[in-house]
Design brief:
alpha+beta; Aminopeptidase; seven-stranded mixed β-sheet; 5 helices; about 35% helix
């Protein structure tokens, strides 16, 4: 099998991934905590993640019944704040982060969406820009050892006839 054939086989498998997004449940907490602690220098506490589940602000990405990522967001009036998004290391670069972001955007069409991101997190910044987010400011010392870039996505314009 040539390198090109292997690449094509890998692409076929990737296209077959069925990613399901659903509301997080308390039984998901162990996997969510594992993803959180392996993804961030300053991870959220278990209790904060549980609170997000109880407030119905945490949604998980699932493949074949396995939680492989999650997103946390809250809505206040006409603004949505993307608070957290992470994908299991073994499942990164397979479109799961994009699916989670698309889910958020779909649910928030008429709202502005805000987020903070580390300037050093280039893959995340590129993903957000791909989905129409733009840099609008800096939060000094937002993270323990780094500022945060504040990004925003405008609401979709609803055209009336």
């Amino acid at each position: 099998m040539t390198a090109e054939t292997k690449k094509q086989e890998g692409e076929k498998k990737q296209k077959k991934l069925e990613i399901k997004i659903r509301e997080g449940r308390e039984e998901d907490i162990e996997k969510v905590v594992l993803i959180e602690f392996s993804s961030f220098e300053s991870p959220w506490s278990r209790n904060l993640l549980i609170r997000s589940i109880k407030k119905k602000e945490l949604f998980v990405a699932e493949i074949n019944g396995e939680v492989v990522g999650y997103i946390v967001f809250s809505k206040i009036l006409d603004e949505v704040h993307l608070e957290n998004i992470a994908v299991d290391e073994r499942w990164r670069r397979k479109g799961i982060g994009s699916k989670l972001l698309e889910f958020l955007i779909q649910r928030s069409k008429e709202s502005s969406i805000f987020l903070e991101v580390r300037p050093s997190n280039i893959p995340a910044i590129n993903l957000y820009k791909k989905y129409g987010f733009r840099e609008i400011g800096i939060r000094k010392k937002y993270y323990v050892n780094e500022d945060a870039i504040v990004m925003m996505r405008e609401p979709e314009k609803i055209h009336s006839e």
